[in-house]
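Bumping with the actual sequence this time:
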Amino acid sequence: MNLLIPTYIFILGLVLGSFFNVVGLRVPMKLSVVHPPSACPHCGARLKAKQLIPVISWLVSGGKCGFCKTSISPVYPLGELATGFLFLWVYFTFGYSWETLVGLLLVSMCVIITVSDLKYMLIPDRVLLTFAPLFLLLRLLYPVDSIWDHVWGLLFGGGVLLLVVIVSKGGMGLGDVKLFALLGWVVGLPNAVVAFLMAFLAGTIIGGLLMLAGVVKRKQPIPFGPFLALGGLLAFAYGSEWIALYLS
């Protein structure tokens, strides 16, 4: 087996994962993603090139800043590793196809959204508007089946969460509605139904475990974007297979 391409894709995921962390943390605050350069969040010291190597720099430094020795959150290397492995997952799932490109873009958007929503409970329009034209073009050129499946997926994704927002009287943000509408366009119908079910199942299970552990309190809002992202990714890769299995 040729390991060159998978290795390259994994390293690409690590590098981009580091950048996605920056985007997810800065864009919601309306900051530039390129200026100022990366610095220690505690002492403000500008990081050198050797301190910007994904995962490795964090391991070598023992998870501490090289200047002030303050502990650096493991969220950064975990985000990089997650992106790398998700890139590999897409490649091994779809191989040499246009769906691989769609999948890599989908993972990229989902990682950024997850970082942003976990940190600020906000899904920035700028992120969605950056990816939307790419997904629109790719699905117009390479629909999974019929282009109308993607149109109905968009309407279902936006419509069902908008209904949830109305019924819950603001219990969910409009950012979630826009995100799921875009996910619905990407995966199409009926896969958007799978994404919806997986997102709410994951949210219920993980939310329940967090309450049992005392991490969150009852009725305390938790970010739902990561669950929508998870549901979208699962539906993108396995939705058709799961539906066929269910119907059989």
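The tokens above came from a reply further down the thread. The radius of gyration is 19 Å.
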